[in-house]
């Protein structure tokens, strides 16, 4: 669902002078939607899918703006290195965030290997047999997601909004 958000933001960049508005609105909607799951993680699955679609749409709106902004900020001779660095750090950050979310999930389930001994984790089948509700386990994961989205929104707001260069615009040579 991030693809439609990405397409919308890319089209908006061609038409709007203030191209950061679309991803700012998208991220704000993502924060609000994910906050719903923090507040009520036991939401029915169909509603969780709808909420996560809104989250993905808002996050998708940031992709083209970030890419084009970086390309616009460097000389054309440095675009390859800038895109490589952006993709490296985007992938590294994503892996790091997924690892943190996994650690939050495992810690909430009771896995604590640092205590030594055998790790015992309650599986979903065992939890259902005991009548336990595992929805609360995801509250911390969703809350961490909200924090990450807020950090992204602050970074986007602070990002300088330069006029976009066209193909025919004079591009300065590197010093």
From the spread of the alpha carbons, the general shape counts as elongated
Q: What proportion of the residues is helical, as a percent range? A: 55-70%
Taking all residues together, what is the mean pLDDT? 85
Biggest sheet character: none
Q: pLDDT below 50 for ≥5 consecutive residues: which ranges?
A: none
**SS field, number of helical segments:** 7
SS content category = mainly alpha
Radius of gyration: 20 Å
End-to-end Cα distance, whole Å, is 42 Å
Please write out the topology.
Elements: H1 2-15, H2 21-39, H3 45-60, H4 62-73, H5 79-109, H6 124-130, H7 139-158
Helix pairs in contact: 1-3, 1-4, 2-3, 2-7, 5-7
Keywords:
single chain, 175 residues, mainly alpha, elongated
Give a summary of the structure in a few sentences.
The chain is mainly alpha-helical and 175 residues long.
Question: What features would you describe in this structure?
Answer:
The chain has 175 residues and is mostly helical. The chain has a domain at 2-87 and 136-158. Helix content is 68%, strand content 0%. It contains 7 helices and no strands. The chain has helices spanning 2-15, 21-39, 45-60, 62-73, 79-109, 124-130, 139-158. Helix 1 (2-15) packs parallel to helix 3. The radius of gyration is 20 Å and the shape is elongated. The mean pLDDT is 85.
């Amino acid at each position: 669902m991030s693809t439609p958000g990405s397409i919308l933001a890319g089209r908006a960049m061609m038409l709007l002078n203030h191209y950061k508005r679309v991803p700012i609105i998208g991220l704000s909607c993502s924060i609000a939607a994910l906050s719903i799951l923090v507040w009520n993680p036991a939401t029915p699955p169909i509603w969780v899918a709808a909420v996560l679609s809104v989250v993905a749409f808002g996050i998708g709106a940031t992709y083209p703006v970030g890419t084009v902004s970086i390309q616009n900020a460097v000389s054309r001779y440095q675009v390859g290195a800038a895109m490589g660095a952006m993709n490296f750090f985007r992938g590294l950050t994503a892996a790091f965030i997924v690892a943190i979310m996994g650690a939050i999930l495992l810690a909430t389930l009771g896995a604590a290997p640092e205590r030594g001994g055998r790790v015992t984790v309650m599986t979903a089948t065992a939890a259902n047999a005991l009548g336990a509700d595992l929805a609360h386990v995801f509250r911390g994961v969703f809350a961490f997601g909200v924090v990450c989205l807020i950090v992204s929104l602050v970074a986007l707001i602070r990002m300088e909004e330069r006029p976009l260069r066209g193909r025919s615009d004079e591009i300065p040579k590197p010093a």
